[in-house]
Write a structure and sequence with these properties.
This protein is an alpha/beta fold. It has nine helices and eleven strands. It has two domains: 80 residues, Arc Repressor Mutant, subunit A, CATH 1.10.10.10; 216 residues, 3-Layer(aba) Sandwich (D-Maltodextrin-Binding Protein, domain 2), CATH 3.40.190. β3, α5 and β4 form a beta-alpha-beta unit. The N and C termini lie far apart (79 Å).
């Protein structure tokens, strides 16, 4: 017969050792810090020695605690993985977080294809421009839009975009390739401090083209989505991601008006290492990788060099 401490004590020790905080461990386990401390004492009494140094701060593991932590962590991960694999597939819900723009412009149009192939797995799409913590357990998969690979999970780059100056073709004068420069300019906000953000200022610096001094930003939006809707509606010219306006470039409702483009960002599929064995996560990741591997290059778009 195995002589083991209570599972709740093992979970408390693993959470404190991993997070380095009684408060954070309590939040993750949905109990009070006092309860976590009590369970840790039970585990230490079971082991017959201290596993954690409370003073001086920050918390640190004793030699015995350092030996136990990876074994217990891996064991709990194995429990979670095995339980996930035997859970009934019906009513399975996969939570996917991504940016508002990618959710609306790219992921939602793909959902009918997902459900045709995976009718037993419901997707909950969480649109947010905040980086959600995978360890918090509120999402299963994150689609991150970033210049560099995320480091808080297993990250796979699906694609990278480029930014093009685009406009509705009905606004352009066919006899004047420069006519777009007289259109109202549309802009949207980027995170402060991103010196490489694809703004009008950066485009002018890269292109060495100075737009008319009298020109100004006619419309500025906080949300990228709103700027895209404005340019699609024919309200001016904007610098847009070819990933987010792929459909409009393909069907001709938007055209590139300049051959000068700006570097964009990567679209990364991010999961926790222990989630990679979940069947639902595996299915979604494989499906989305296939979508981007087989996506045909945008064709039949009209391009006016400038």
């Amino acid at each position: 017969m195995r002589r083991l401490p209570p599972l709740v004590a093992l979970r408390a020790f693993e959470a404190v050792a991993r997070l380095g905080s009684f408060r954070l461990a309590a939040e993750e386990l949905h109990v009070t810090p006092t309860a976590v401390s009590h369970q840790l004492r039970i585990f230490e009494e079971h082991c017959g020695q201290m596993l954690l140094r409370r003073r001086p701060r920050p918390l640190s593991l004793t030699e015995a605690g350092a030996r136990l932590f990876p074994v217990i962590r891996d064991g709990l991960d194995a429990f979670a993985t095995a339980i996930e694999q035997v859970r009934a597939p019906q009513n399975h819900r996969l939570r996917v977080s991504t940016t508002n723009a990618f959710a609306a412009r790219c992921l939602v149009p793909l959902l009918p294809a997902w459900y045709r192939e995976n009718p037993a797995i419901d997707l909950e799409v969480i649109g947010t421009d905040q980086v959600m913590d995978l360890r918090a357990g509120t999402v299963d998969v994150a689609l991150r839009y970033a210049r560099d690979p995320p480091v808080d999970g297993v990250a796979v780059e699906l694609t990278r975009d480029r930014f093009h100056v685009v406009a509705a073709p009905r606004l352009l004068e066919s006899s004047d390739a420069e006519s777009w420069k007289r259109l109202p300019r549309i802009a949207y906000d980027w995170l402060p401090g991103d010196t490489m953000a694809p703004t009008w200022e950066r485009w002018q610096a890269v292109s060495h083209i100075r737009l008319n001094a009298s020109d100004r930003i006619a419309m500025r939006f906080r949300e990228e989505l709103h700027a895209i809707e404005a340019v699609v509606a024919g309200q001016g010219v904007a610098i847009c991601s070819d990933l987010l306006v792929r459909q409009e470039l393909s069907d001709g409702s938007l055209v590139r008006v300049s051959s000068i483009t700006l570097d964009g960002y990567g679209l990364y599929l991010v999961t926790l290492p222990e989630q990679t064995t979940s069947q639902g996560v595996q299915d979604f990741c494989a499906w989305l990788r296939r979508v981007y591997l087989t996506a045909s290059a945008v064709s039949n778009e009209r391009q006016v060099p400038g």
